[in-house]
């Protein structure tokens, strides 16, 4: 099958540091190539792939200090996708909504995976305007706020099985927090949980400028007041394997409708259990008593830290192998692609869509 994958340009594929969507696009692309498909990846020019790479910018936009406006690079990429659309059996977008006004110009079946949160009010009129184009969710919970749209399926994320090393015996004796420093990720709860449980905490996370005030006003003072808690900054893939693998548990104390949460399955791949708050996709990823504990409060989380001995790290890894490999993810997408090729509901460029305004 001739498949086009359209990635965000903020990070390369795969990202050097933080980057969830680009990471998943990269894993999916490489697995499809391994299965013998003819894949073209539209991504930043510094991406590393065995697919044919088409780029509209030389490097990841987030890491290029000279980039002020990403829009021109996305528009150039989309222009190239439209020009070459006839070359593909299916075109798979991962860039939210920028491409929607162009879809009627594409003769090939298209599908969009929605990687982000969908509970924002401004999204409702948009998706009501374009209800006919096939979309994929990354969890069932992610779908809940959406109006009626053309759901093609739900595909949970997956990772290469050899990406992160399984560690039967962690050597660190610490709790881990990995992701972003932001109010919805609740690193303040992670610090409180670790301090009350009497465990060291290591925080590996990026700080976006929009969250700088939260870092300086809330998290930094908490770290200074809790000497067992340490901020180590952003880490790369090689460092991540050690960081997660040597942790007694990953803390995932989110307070927002997390669409998926890749870090949970990254920890599971290492055999590291996850203590996660019941929110968003958590109940679809973590199985209490097997791959970790799902909790309601900080008190519950503290109690769960002291129950980690009840869990088998081999069992955590087995749960990953059963449900969250990249091969399973790619096969799920291939079923969707084949369904799109045979479905009369796919909108072609000679079929005008009905105007629907909010």
From TrEMBL:
Keywords: Transferase. PANTHER family: SULFOQUINOVOSYL TRANSFERASE SQD2, TRANSFERASE. The keyword Transport does not apply. Residues 174-302 form the Glycosyl transferase family domain. Residues 18-127 form the Glycosyltransferase subfamily 4-like N-terminal domain. InterPro entries: Glyco_trans_1, Glyco_trans_4-like_N, Glycosyltransferase_grp1. This is Glycosyltransferase involved in cell wall biosynthesis. GO terms for molecular function: glycosyltransferase activity. The keyword Transferase applies. It comes from the Bacteria.
